[in-house]
Amino acid sequence: MTDSLISCLSVDPDVAAAVERIGPCRLRGDDGQEPYDALLRAIAGQQLHGAAARRIFGRLCLLGPASSEDGPPPVPEALLAFPEDALRACGLSASKQAAMRGVAQARLEGLVPTRLEASRLEDEDLIQRLITLRGVGRWTVEMILMFTLGRPDVMPVDDFGVREGWRRIKRLDTAPRPKDLKTETLRFSPHRSALAWYCWRVAEEGKKTAPNTLTG
User: Fold this and answer.
1) Closest CA to 134 of 181, 158, 100
2) Considering 123, 159, 173, 180, which one is annotated as catalytic?
3) Would the pLDDT of 5 be above 80?
4) Counting Cβ atoms within 10 Å, is residue 142 exposed (0-12), middle (13-18) or buried (19+)?
5) What SMART domains would the database entry show (predicted)?
6) pLDDT digits (tens, 9 = 90+) for 155-206
7) Which pLDDT belongs to residue 29?
8) In the CATH scheme, what architecture does the domain 35-147 have?
9) Domain boundaries in the chain?
10) Which fold has domain 3-28+155-204?
11) Against a cut of 0.85, is the pTM above it?
12) Which H helix or E strand runs over 140?
């Protein structure tokens, strides 16, 4: 952890106590994927648990250029050319197929940026650009900002785990409303991604289930 991050999170004694208890931030800020790949992975995993989501995305990646479950997924031109049966065999519903084809078309048209192109765009610009796609909401883009593009100042206020973690950190009776959480955490800028990571860890404390494979 950098001195800047430690100093920023230490401005609040409750947050500082959580940091001390949990230890150094292990946020994975750059998974090496292109935004196109990350969007397909996110769509594949919607409404599924981690293992099932990974299996379905792995089957899709077997259709990609490396023919490997480890990726990458098919390029846009190939994805658009696959028949419905081939994608259904991967475990993709009709709605997920339509969302993925929309992402592929948007990549060809330049709406979905490359990593280099994304580096020139502000967080909110990327969010507003990508939520126009079918099956892609704000939370999905925020996860890509945090875990694919390594953006350090993202606070996903609609995330249940983040809200629950903040409730526990501040010993509140109920989880804060998203707009209240946004206001309360502005003072932790530019390190709100790390703060969100600590909220997830606090929300998981005492649970017997394994940590979330994305946010862990």
Assistant:
1) 100
2) 159
3) yes
4) buried
5) ENDO3c
6) 999 999 999 999 999 999 999 999 999 999 999 999 999 999 999 999 999 8
7) 85
8) Orthogonal Bundle (1.10)
9) 3-28+155-204, 35-147
10) Endonuclease Iii, domain 2 (1.10.1670)
11) yes
12) helix 138-147
